[in-house]
Amino acid sequence: MTKVVVGMSGGVDSSVAAILLKNKGYEVIGLFMRNWDSSLNNDFLGKKKEELELDICPQEKDYNDALEVCKKIGIQLHRVDFVKEYWDYVFTYFLDELKKGRTPNPDVMCNKYIKFDLFIKEAKKLGADFIATGHYANILDNNLYMAKDSNKDQTYFLSMLSSKQLEHVIFPLGDLEKTKVRQIASEYGLITANKKDSTGICFIGERNFKEFLKNYFPTNTGDIINIETNEKVGEHSGLMYYTIGQRKGLNLGGNNDKMFIVGKKLDKNILYVASGEDNSYLYSDSAILEDVNFINDIRPTKCKAKFRYRAPLYDVEIEYIDNNMIKLKYSGIKAVTPGQICVLYLDSMCLGGGIIKEVHKDNNKLWYL
């Protein structure tokens, strides 16, 4: 019998993934990953009220939920600790990018280094022929495709995987709507049926972002400058707390215009803003991507690109610079942000992605980014 090890997170998606696989006749084993230790990782500031009121840490509650689900559906649950590896490969990257004034995406790196690397190696020790997760995506011939539920599609977060990593992966939820997943969980009477979806940083959870980062960065206040008038309009509490296109949280007091973040000057510790959501300083027409990963051998000159997870797909032209760097040309896109992952698509196929290194307009690198 084909053995599948399912990454059990203690959430509804992985719970239903395990049920569907078992119903198809696979031998299913659950494996829970513990990747964060608040006390070990100095995670004291920024926790939400709900977490502070828990008798146990959220990771242990998730494990207990996963354990109850596995008992209910009749499969074993194993447990593995990747706390050190998560810090070394994911969280260190996250902090380093913030220090550079960029906006990182740790969830993408978590998939690349933890969920689809270390987890696969651990699953093989358990005799796995395949591994499965509760991601909303599809695989065909080792290629990655969008999920049926476009609102839940997670190919963006899987874009840095290789075809080799996808060889022995199953995504049971790829053709299901989220409402159907919860319905299945309810029919089986699972404790996770109505459990809230996890949000926030991968495996760390929801945090007050500013307070959370105070665990790792000293306060470093600086000027907020209106880039159009060069006037000081306020004071920021640290460049790492802000991202391009952000409007909320600027605390600019009496300023009646809607002010948006348009840039950062790291060496001078300046945060630049401009008024109006269609301000020209928010727009660019090309970007350089570094550390580019292609899942397959397809190298188009034109395709679609997603510059943030919830962003729409845009038409782009690709100029290949070298093996892991490309230039994307496009027509006036707003808030393209260094450090974010840009993901490429050909119809519903996810080709891969890269990290936004530079943002350009009229063939010039934007000096304020």
Describe this structure in words.
The protein has 369 residues and is an alpha+beta fold. It has three domains: 207 residues, 3-Layer(aba) Sandwich (Rossmann fold), CATH 3.40.50; 58 residues, SH3 type barrels; 85 residues, Elongation Factor Tu (Ef-tu), domain 3 (Beta Barrel), CATH 2.40.30. Helices cover 24% and strands 30% of the residues. The chain has eight helices and 18 strands. The chain has a six-stranded antiparallel barrel with strand order 12-15-14-13-16-17. It has a five-stranded parallel beta sheet with strand order 3-2-1-4-7, with helices on both faces. The protein has a four-stranded mixed beta sheet with strand order 9-8-11-10, with no helix packed on it. The longest helix is centred in the first third of the chain and has 20 residues.
Query: Ranges with pLDDT <50 over ≥5 residues?
Result: none
The portion of residues assigned to helices is: 10-25%
Please outline the major beta sheet. Answer: 6 strands, antiparallel, barrel
Q: Which structural class should the secondary elements be placed in?
A: alpha+beta
What is the CATH T-level topology of the largest domain? Rossmann fold
Strand % is: 25-35%
The average pLDDT is 93
What is the N-to-C order of secondary-structure elements (H for helix, E for strand)?
EHEHHEHHEEEHEHHEEEEEEEEEEE
CA gyration radius, whole angstroms = 22 Å
Shape: globular
Strand arrangement in the largest pleated sheet: 12-15-14-13-16-17
Distance between the termini: 54 Å
CATH H-level name of the largest domain... which superfamily?
A: HUPs
Instruction: Please give the oligomerization state of what you see.
Output: single chain
CATH architecture of the largest domain: 3-Layer(aba) Sandwich
Question: How many separate domains make up the residues?
Answer: 3
Number of strands: 18
CATH class of the largest domain: Alpha Beta
Helix count, per DSSP?
Answer: 8
